[in-house]
Write a structure and sequence with these properties.
The protein has about 375 residues and is α/β, with parallel strands linked by helices. The chain has 13 helices and 14 strands. About 40% of the residues lie in helices and about 15% in strands. α2 runs parallel beside α3. The protein is globular, with a radius of gyration of 21 Å.
């Protein structure tokens, strides 16, 4: 069986870029764990300034690259168009059994290709493709456009893949329709082997961590502002590592300087290998206004971190992670204060979070679900 993947911005995932993305990691989890009998064709964008061949072939994977752009919106709209155009040309001579599309923008271009060649097509939307995020004019325009794509095309594809059961409800609720085939396949992460037990918190700083693109949606400004509301007796005993890059970086740095928090907060930029940060952290804070799911959260849970998360519709219980009613600074500060005051809860929440990921979000169950889905289209 041969599957065409579209919508992956770069391959290998997040290599040669200054800002990572969940789509690449998500697709890597699928592709690298498929049995050898499944052949994969990836059409992706060439990373400027990074040495890559336009064509690579192995026993299982064929990778084709098209010109790319550094500007984010150009990459989204023009890059995905070039990928679909390349797919149209390639499919004249190469047969595939299924097109698996990631993101709404990629679907906009890929759908006509699938219809022309009469190939089944499925889509896994990521991020906020449903039109319910309303912060800022640019966001409203962009999200409204993504929602328009969803309403026009979701009911025409063979399957829409929801990242979890709550994601399914969001899709159906905000699109106000149930007329398309929707299937839940939980996101997943590899379960790391913990190389050390958590240190006693006595006589050392409590290490906080947040990971993700530095965009307005992620709410990192609210996390930084929460520090001025944390009890003064605790402020000198905590430290926050921010891992990620994005258009809000300079703005966020100015907030840190204005609040005189340089000793408490460190910007680390985009890091390809985030494992050491997870391994050395105690608390993970995820104040994002909304996410498709949030692979960074699953990674933090897999490392046994106590997680403080804005509840944008997550399939977890409040005794597994600390679910915030909103992502405002006073709410974030209240939850951080709670964990600092109750050090035993840090270990307890971390253990429960790791168990949930092991039980329900492992790579094995994730790939098994996709194999069952793919086999429905086997000729």
């Amino acid at each position: 069986m041969k599957i065409l993947f579209l919508g992956i911005k770069e391959w290998p995932a997040n290599i040669g870029v200054k800002r990572g993305g969940g789509i690449g990691n998500y697709c890597r989890a699928i592709i690298e764990n498929l049995p050898i009998k499944y052949k994969v064709l990836i059409i992706t964008q060439r990373i400027r300034g990074y040495k890559q061949s336009n064509y690579e072939h192995s026993a299982r994977n064929t990778i084709l690259r098209v010109p790319s752009f550094n500007h984010r919106l150009y990459r989204l709209f023009i890059g995905n168009f070039f990928c679909a155009l390349k797919a149209f040309l390639v499919l004249k001579k190469n047969k595939v059994d299924l097109i698996h599309v990631h993101s709404n923008i990629a679907l906009l271009y890929a759908y006509p290709v699938a219809k022309i060649y009469k190939i089944p097509i499925i889509v896994t939307p990521h991020g906020d493709p449903y039109g319910f995020l309303k912060e800022g004019l640019k966001n409203r325009m962009f999200i409204t456009f993504l929602a328009w794509i969803s309403r026009r095309l979701f009911h025409k594809v063979d399957y829409v893949i929801a990242l979890n059961s709550n994601d399914k409800i969001k899709i159906q609720t905000y699109l106000k329709q149930n007329s398309f085939n929707i299937r839940v396949i939980n996101s997943s992460v590899s379960i790391p082997k913990l190389t050390k037990t958590k240190e006693n918190l006595t006589n050392r700083k409590v290490k906080l961590l947040t990971v993700g693109r530095l965009t307005a949606l992620k709410g990192i400004d609210k996390l930084i502002n929460a520090f001025k509301l944390i009890s003064k007796e605790y402020l000198d005993s905590i430290h926050l590592n921010i891992v990620g890059d994005g258009e809000e970086m300079e703005t966020l740095k100015k907030i840190v300087i204005k609040l005189k928090l340089e000793e408490q907060i460190t910007f680390n930029g985009f890091i390809e290998l985030t494992d050491p940060f997870y391994e050395n952290a105690d608390i993970f804070v995820f104040p994002s206004a909304d996410e498709g799911f949030g692979l960074a959260l699953l990674e933090a849970m897999s490392y046994g971190l106590a997680c403080i998360v804005n509840d944008y519709g997550l399939p977890f219980k409040n005794n597994e992670i600390l679910l915030m009613a909103d992502n405002q600074p006073n709410t974030i500060a209240k939850h951080i204060n709670f964990l600092i005051e109750n050090e035993g809860e840090i270990i307890d929440y971390g253990n429960k979070a790791r168990k949930v990921v092991i039980d329900e979000y492992s790579i094995d169950s994730f790939v098994k679900e996709y194999l069952m889905l793919y086999d429905e289209f086997r000729n």
